[in-house]
Amino acid sequence: MLRFCSGWLLAAALYPTAPTQGAPLPPPNGPAPTAPPRLTVGLTTANRTTYLQRAPPKADDRGYLGTTLTYQAPAGFISSLYLNHSYNFETLQEPYINYGELMAGWQSVSDSDTYWTVQYTRLFVYGESALVQASLRNDFSASLTHFFDYVTASASADLFVGGTHDFVLTLDASHRFQLPVLAHDTLSIEPTVEFGAGSQHFYASSLGNTSQVRTTKHGGTTTVFREPATPAFSALGYTLSVPVTLAAGRFSVAATPSYLVPLHVPAGGIDAAFFYGTLSVSRTFW
User: Fold this and answer.
1) Which residue from 262, 251, 260 is spatially nearest to 278, judged by alpha carbons?
2) What is the tens place of the pLDDT at every residue in 216-247?
3) I want to staple 250 with a disulfide (CB 3.0 to 4.6 A). Which of 134, 204, 217, 284 is the partner?
């Protein structure tokens, strides 16, 4: 599943008032009584780029513009295409589109307070990308969400293979305040806390350095790639966010201030907490 801070796009595509990041969630009052939207286009922009609660150096990161196209069948099949443009692509000498994701999966459509998804995502990185997830290629993920009386709780697991291998667990909890706006529009405010734990070989790979080392044989040199040491499994951090979403007919607009606190960051990584913001808009067709 999408783990960019643009993860709101896929969630909004599935259900127009879903929160940022993590697994896509059903509507605030329980599962949808009718078939969900089938085709959604979304745009999002942010002043920082994050992935699995890790971020590239601020000097390399001016934010991004992301585009998502999502198809959702009434029977439960879902698929999406995500394309990412870095605002710093010229300085980094990257292509205009420096990152992409292609996802296919299945979600529950039953009338229940418990909602699940299973997904496969293929990740594409173009050129010498500064993205922290540049070494990742395949993501097998599953999520489970339950609607309690006052809190929506979700747990997801991601297994990454190809390039580097990682396993990440994500837990989040939120409470939605929904206000009517005009006749059929709604404004929702949903304070959310997210906690992540797992391995982070992908991040260590982005921090690694290549150097020439002299060999004893024939007095030559060899190229060595060194990565900082990382725990086998540890807390990655937590994120506090407050998505504010306006749903008006087929359109949805969301502004999300977030505060990320990284934990157990490898040497040379970004270990300071920081604020960032995203602004997203989506339009559902059919």
Assistant:
1) 260
2) 666 666 666 678 888 899 999 999 999 999 99
3) 284
